[in-house]
Amino acid sequence: MSTSLLAVSNGSFLDKVQSRELRVGVIGLGYVGLPLTLLFSERKFRVTGFDVDQKKVDILSKGGSYIYRILPEEIASATQSGFEATADYARLREVDAIIICVPTPLNEHHEPDLSYIENTAHAIAPNLVPGQLVILESTTYPGTTEEVLIPILEKENKHGLKAARAGSSEENTFLIAFSPEREDPGNTTVARCDIPKVVGGLNSRATDFAGALYGSIFNRVVPVSSPSVAEMTKLLENIYRCVNIALVNELKLLCLRMGIDIFEVIKAASTKPFGFQAFYPGPGLGGHCIPIDPFYLSWKAKEFDFHTRFIELAGEVNLSMPYHVVNSVAGALNRQKKSLNGSNVLVLGLAYKKDIDDLRESPSLTIIELLLKEGALVSYNDPFFPTVGRGRHYDLNMESAGLEQLEEFDCVVIVTDHSSYDYADIVKRSKLVVDTRNATQGISSENIVQC
Ligand SMILES: NC(=O)c1ccc[n+]([C@@H]2O[C@H](COP(=O)([O-])OP(=O)(O)OC[C@H]3O[C@@H](n4cnc5c(N)ncnc54)[C@H](O)[C@@H]3O)[C@@H](O)[C@H]2O)c1
């Protein structure tokens, strides 16, 4: 923890953090909220988890898990340490700190959908208790904490409480901070507690308290001067990824035309000991962060008569990648004197990246829909998804096909490079493989088409 946080006076909040008497409430028990809950629980905090999805609450209450990488044993162990899941917001009155981890998607017009944050704020407000610390973790545009969350909490709480601001008295206040979640799903090289936690409070007391709380589960806390700085930090990180991925995606398209292997180029460039960080091309962006978060900022920027051209351009390039994949499949089939219309195509991998059970915004879904539109007979295989039904942007109703009869497909498209696939065997048994991920690197066959 940073020294400024250690210098905080020994208020009862800090004593309770130290002694683990402090009660934590986490709202939104998804990919972010549930692991965070378990981390607090592992470090001996008593956590109450809140979710509007009663099915999730029931599964957790029975000691089960609905996230692949979280084992039921971890839920059972947390339960022994006092973890409870509930849909009853009145129980927020029992906790000292409330951490909000609800979704922040885009609506159908590609604009921020803050309804989850707003609904959460409406539900917290009547249960807000003086002195409580409320922390928003959901990724969002700078200004959300102060312009959206605080006004609802101040207006709708029952005690006339105000958010504690710089210089305001502590009486009749609640504390508020923003602290972005920076997890990288499926990354096993960095432990969650080793990802430094950026914290920006509305006043220094909120920053110090939130910092002390997170400092007891994360190895490093990075205090910043305001919620907006913390909100913008998260967006900078994700926009940096989005723009760099777009850059390599564009260069891949050029390299394909020039007959140059972009992956070999990236590998060589990565040997430079400074000034270069490797990003890899693929079939398009997926997940709840990189394809979405940049557009939170471009939307907000318009309020300031500002056009975020890098974000728009990166979005354009990345969004075009699934179309490039489908064109490549059509071209590869054409070279075998077949049309896409009527061909049997197997899409390997539904998840938006390897070895995870998350298909939100996955390019596989777009690719499947585009292939179907062109008249292909499409199947998919994904060990993480035995079936796929309906989501916000898709309606597929399909079952994962077995890999026993690969030779029956006209084309196999590798969209997600799960580690469990035996690529040499897949290439050997397939008539045609279109590889969007360089998963077949080192395998030599005329049937492989890099895409
Ligand atoms: N998944 C990631 O890898 C990741 C990484 C960094 C940041 N984030 C950000 O974290 C936030 C949460 O993402 P996630 O992936 O955990 O989403 P998620 O969809 O997996 O989980 C959100 C949970 O919130 C619940 N919920 C929705 N409205 C609620 C309400 N009013 N009250 C209580 N619960 C409610 C949902 O039922 C769901 O269980 C988003 O802003 C996202 O951008 C996600």
Summarize the structure.
With about 450 residues, the protein is an alpha/beta fold. It contains 14 helices and 16 strands.
Description:
This protein has 451 residues and is α/β, with parallel strands linked by helices. The protein contains 14 helices and 16 strands. Strands 1, 2, 3, 4, 5, 6, 7, 8 and 9 form a 9-stranded mixed β-sheet that branches. Helix 13 (363-373) links the parallel strand 10 (344-348) and strand 11. Bound molecules: nicotinamide-adenine-dinucleotide. Nicotinamide-adenine-dinucleotide (NAD) binds at residues 27-33, 50-53, 56, 101-104, 116, 119-120, 123, 138-139, 181, 183, 185, 288-289.
Low-confidence stretches: 1-10
Query: What value does the average pLDDT take?
Result: 94
Number of strands: 16
Content of β-strand: 5-15%
Helix content: 25-40%
List of distinct ligands in this structure? nicotinamide-adenine-dinucleotide
Category from helices, strands and their pairing: alpha/beta
**Number of helices, counting only DSSP H or I runs of 4 residues or more:** 14
Profile the largest sheet: 9 strands, mixed
User: What is the first-to-last residue Cα distance?
Assistant: 46 Å
Order of helices and strands: HHEHEHHEEHEHEEEHEHHHHEHEEEEHEE
What oligomeric assembly is this protein in? single chain
Instruction: Give the overall silhouette.
Output: elongated
Radius of gyration: 24 Å
